[in-house]
Every structure is written in C-alpha cells, then in structure tokens.
C-alpha cells in the first residue's frame, strides 16, 4: 500500500497536545499518544511539533530502540523524500544503525588517548631511571 505524502505545511496543522505530528528522517509521525510516554518529556516533543524534527532527534543520540519506536507512529512520508522502505518497514531501521556504528567508533577512538597517556607517563620514568642508573654505576 502506498504511503500518504504530506507537506511541511500540512504537518504544521498538527501541533497541539491533542493532535501532534512531526517528521523525522522523511517519515511523518503522529506522536499524540506518545507525548506522555516519551522518556525525554513531552515538552521537547511539543517544541518540535508540526516541524521536521530530524536534527533534534538525531542530535540527542537516540538509541536503536528509539529509532525502532518511530515505526509505531508513522502516518506517511514527507514530501520530497523517497523512502525505499515505505513498503517494507523492516528495512527502514537499517538506515539509522549505521550512525550508531559510527558512534561506537568514536568511543573506540577515546581509548587511544588512554594508551598514549600511559606511554607519556612511563617514557619519562624510563629516561629518568636510566639516567640515575647510569649515574649510580658510573
Ligand atoms: C517519535 C519520536 C521520538 C521517539 C520515538 C523518541 C524516543 C525516545 C526514547 C525511547 C528515549 C529514551 C532514551 C533512548 O532510548 O534513546 C528518548 C529520550 C529523549 N528524547 Fe526522544 N524520542 C522522539 C523524539 C524526540 C525529539 C523530537 C526530541 C527533541 C526535540 C527528543 C528528545 C529526547 C530527549 C531530550 C531525551 C532524553 C535523553 C536523556 O535523558 O539522555 N526526542 N526519546
């Protein structure tokens, strides 16, 4: 079944607590029944109501579970987006996990300075040790 296409101005008509829509990654979502359940609070959702909230949603670094939750609230597609996954909702979740993988790389990167800090500590110690050993033996 083809999904309904909405424009941003159509979404902007749904920005009250009783009827709250927003768009994330080209998907139009009706989050009215999610407002109270959102772990980040309903205020942030209301601020994004009626708009394209992709940037805010991604900036928070929502979990994979949060990304998967999006499907429960889908009502259509944002105009200008052609989602290959409009028929098979399962595929769609594979678009975002890539970003998560990148975050994992960032975490791994953080491990390097720790190792470097260890070296920075031991190398001068070794040099000083060698110097005193030399002084003592000479
Ligand atoms: C339908 C859309 C959304 C869903 C399904 C959703 C889901 C979730 C979930 C499950 C969490 C818990 C933490 C996690 O699993 O990542 C969360 C936290 C949060 N969300 Fe959302 N969210 C949505 C939209 C938004 C938007 C548009 C914003 C910002 C404008 C937002 C801001 C936050 C914040 C600030 C937190 C708390 C993060 C923390 O405590 O560390 N969310 N959301």
Automatic annotation (TrEMBL):
One of its GO terms (molecular function) is metal ion binding. Gene3D superfamilies: Cytochrome b5-like heme/steroid binding domain (3.10.120.10). It is found in: Membrane. The keyword Disulfide bond does not apply. One of its GO terms (cellular component) is membrane. Pfam families: Cyt-b5. Residues 3-79 form the Cytochrome b5 heme-binding domain. PROSITE patterns: CYTOCHROME_B5_1, CYTOCHROME_B5_2. It comes from the Eukaryota. Keywords: Heme, Iron, Membrane, Metal-binding, Transmembrane, Transmembrane helix. The chain crosses the membrane at residues 115-134. The keyword Heme applies. This is Cytochrome b5 heme-binding domain-containing protein. It comes from Citrus clementina (Clementine).
């Amino acid at each position: 079944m083809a999904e309904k296409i909405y424009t941003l101005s159509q979404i902007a008509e749904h920005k009250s607590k009783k009827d709250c829509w927003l768009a994330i990654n080209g998907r139009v979502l009706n989050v009215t029944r999610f407002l109270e359940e959102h772990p980040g609070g309903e205020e942030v959702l209301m601020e994004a109501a009626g708009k394209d909230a992709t940037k805010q949603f991604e900036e928070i670094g929502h979990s994979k579970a949060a990304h998967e939750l999006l499907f429960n609230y889908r009502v259509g597609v944002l105009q200008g987006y052609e989602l290959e996954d409009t028929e098979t909702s399962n595929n769609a979740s594979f678009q975002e996990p890539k970003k998560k993988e990148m975050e994992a790389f960032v975490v791994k990167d953080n491990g390097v300075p720790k190792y470097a800090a260890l070296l920075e500590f031991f190398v001068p110690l070794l040099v000083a040790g060698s110097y005193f050993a030399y002084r003592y033996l000479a």
